Each structure stands twice: as C-alpha cells, then as structure tokens.
Amino acid sequence: MTIKRIFLVLLxxxxxxxxxxxxxxxLDRPQIQSRLELYQTNLLLRATELQVEAKDNKDGTNxxxxxEAFLGKEPLELAxxxxxxxxxxxxxxxDKIATKSQNITKETDSGKIKELIQTGNRSxxxxxxxxxxxxxxxxxxxxxxxxxxxxxxxxxGKASEISSFQKTAEILINLWSPTAKLPSDSELQIQxxxxxxxxxxxxxxxxxxxxxxxxxxxxxxxxQELAQQAIFKLLLIGSLPVIGLIIGVGLLIFLFGQFFVQxxxxxxxxxxxxxxxxxxxxxTTWQVLAVGFFAVKxxxxxxxxxxxxxxxxxxxxxxxxxxxxxFNLIAYILVAALSILVLYLSLKPFLPLPxxxxxxxxxxxxxxxxxxxxxxxxxxxxxVSLINQKLxxxxxxxxxxxPVVLExxxxxxxxxxxxxxxxxxxxxxxxxxxxxMLPSLTRYxxxxxxxxxxxxxFAIAHLSLSEVLPLTTLGIILGVVYxxxxxxxxxxxxxxxxxxxxxxxxxxxxxxSN
Length: 514
Known about the structure:
The protein is an all-alpha fold. The protein has 18 helices and no strands.
C-alpha cells in the first residue's frame, strides 16, 4: 500500500469518527421544525389582534365569521397548548442531558454539555414568561402569576443563567398586581426579554397601569398595522405551499402515468441507464470526497478559522446576526474554493475530460427541468418530513444557518444569507455531488445506485440526523433531474429554488416576532 493510500485510509477513519460524533451530538439538539411551529403561532397571535366588527360587510360577508374561520375560535387556547408542549419537550430533553452529564469525564465534552444546559435553561425561562402571558390574557390570572413565581423560585444554581428573565417575571407579576410598585426600568426590561405579541401585551398593561394614554394609543395603532401584516403573511405562507403541492402532485401523476404508458421513451426514463465515461478509478473519487470535501469542510477550515478567531478573541455567537451572515458567507466561499482546487488537481491528469462531464447549459430547457423537479420534490419531501418528525420527536439537529434567518430580521442579513444558501451552496454542492460524485459512481454502480449513494452522502454532509431522510429524498430528486437532463444547470436551479423557498418562509415566520 502506498503512502498516499495509507494517508487516505487514516483520514477516512478520522472523518467517519468525526461525522459520527457530530451526528450523535445532534441527537440532543432540537429540530428547526419545532421552533417553526412556535413562530407560526406568534404570527397567529399577532393576527388575532386585528379588530373586526361582528356585523356583516357590504357584500353580505360576516367579517367576524371570516376571522374565526381563518384564525380559529380559540387561538389563545391553541397557542397556550403549543407553548406548554414545547416547554415539556424542552424540560424532558434537559433532564436527559443532565443524566448524560453524570457520565461525562472529558473537560471538553462537559463544557459542551454545560453550554447545552445553559441554553436550554434560558429557553425554558423565556417559554415560561410567554406561557404566563397567554394564561393571564385568557383570564387565568392566578395560573399565570404562579407560572412566573415558579420561574423566580428556580434553584440558585441556575439563577445566573436566567436572572434577566426572573427580573422580567417579577415585573409581570407586579403589572398584574395593582398595588405593587414597578421598577423604573420596567419598559426597557420588557422590551429586552419579550418580543412580538408578548411584548405588546405586557407594554399595554404597563401603559394602562401608568395611565400613559398617548403611548397606549400609539401602541394600539401600531398593533393594528402589524396585525394586518400578519394576516397577509399567514395567507402567503399558507397558500403558496398548497399551490406548490397541488402542482407537484399533478406533475408526479403525469410523469408516472407517462412512464407506465411510454416506458423507456418517457421523461423520467430518459438517460436512466446510461453511465458516464469515467477515466479515473475509485481512488481518485475517494480522494476528492475525503480530502476535497469532508476534510476541507469539517477539519482543515474549521481548525484554521477556530485558531484565527481565538487569536482575535472573537466569539461568533456574540456577533450580530448580520456579522454572522458575513462570516458564514466568507467561510462557505473558502470551503468551496479549496474543495474545487482539490477537485481540479485530482482531475488534472485526466484533462481534457469527456464532453459529457460537468455539462452546464444555461437555457430554458434546463430551467424547466429544475423548476419541474422543485414542484415534484415538494410533496415527496413533505411526506418524508412528516414521517421523520414522528421518528425524531422534535430532536436530531438542524442546519445552524436557519436560526440566523429566523432571528436576523433585516434585508442586509437576508441578502447575505440568500447569496450563501441560494447561490453559493447550489453551485458548489451540485458541482461536487451531482457534477462529480454521481457520475464517478456510475463506473461501479448502475445509475439508480449512484443516485442513491450520492444522495445519502449529500444528506450526511449536513451533519444533522433529523435531516438525513428529507435531504436524501431531495438528493434523489436532484440526481434524477441531473441524470435525465444531463445539464448541471437544471439541478442548480432546483437546489436554488428549494433553498430560496426555505429562506423566504423562515424570514416571513421570523418577522412575526418583530
């Protein structure tokens, strides 16, 4: 065995170990889906503030009936139920982490466990603040007060992690206790620890208790404006996916119907059994995957960036969301540049490549393949995601970029994230997984097998257990589109549309807490 192969074997063992560890760690991290439900609830709560008279409109429509049909008869009760479920799920997860921490001996691992517990305690405290507000708004004053008292009475060992939320809980208790005296910084504290509907409910109570009628009137006017916007956003995120799903289901019925009638002459059978002419062997493919992708992305660059940030004494988590978006874009461009360099050097001995390799034709046909693949993917990934959610029960991790989209509510941040997720990621990942990996595997596997293996690798590369099944499904559709169209532009369009739709939905949902 050559030195090169020994190096590749050792590197592969290390990569497998590191990826396995990352996937195991993701087990204790919540899925983004569990947060999305609460963000949608926040939008719903905002929409309930729209004031509509019960009488009929000029066209005979009962506006109150329309409002109830859209928002439900008991939106506050539904919101409370969802928040309590999120609270219980988080508490159960914290209990599991605490149990695991008793068996941890390594200092680095115990530090990660401690960080997870601290983050969980902060989230739990924030949930309790919100649940109390939901309870008092439903007339359950004593229950809400008790929820806040329980937050204040948490054990001293956790006080430093949630002291700000405890202070806000004290203010809320005083707000709903007429004889109590409020601290001078009550308004600032409320604005710091609460947002969206919850912040405005607390501020309304504060302004009423302090008899600040002008501030209350201004707040109510702003609430009505935001409520109208929330209605529009709910319609947008509710109707567009439904339209997409209807188109996708219709497209799938057409494609499979055509396949059963025309077989080998159908669209989804086109080029289905034609492999690529691959001049290199498995070692070169292995080298590009191990060194050019996983080692660069998960070992070398994180090490370099970690050392650089340590020298500069910069903590990424403490940066603004806009600066985090800048950092993520720069890091992704560096990963892509280094990976493509390794790819080029690995394939340089085989230049010029056969003409079917990395074919990229920017044309209407390529766009049509990509757009059709996007609509076909919607119902398939949705079904798999629903099954996946039941399987992982809200845990298994998510893409770390997604919370930045939810929380970073400004257009500069969104633009930077769009460049990263909807331009850089589709081009780079399609080049590596569909442009190189999939065709290379057809030397040893049938086309369908190459699609399956490359899709699984594509999903694992995202390092979240909860995303493996949905991303494998998406990868298979990307692979089918690429192998049938033989145009890398097609799968890039599909990938870009998918990421763009996800970004837009997250941004709209996140705006409900603004």
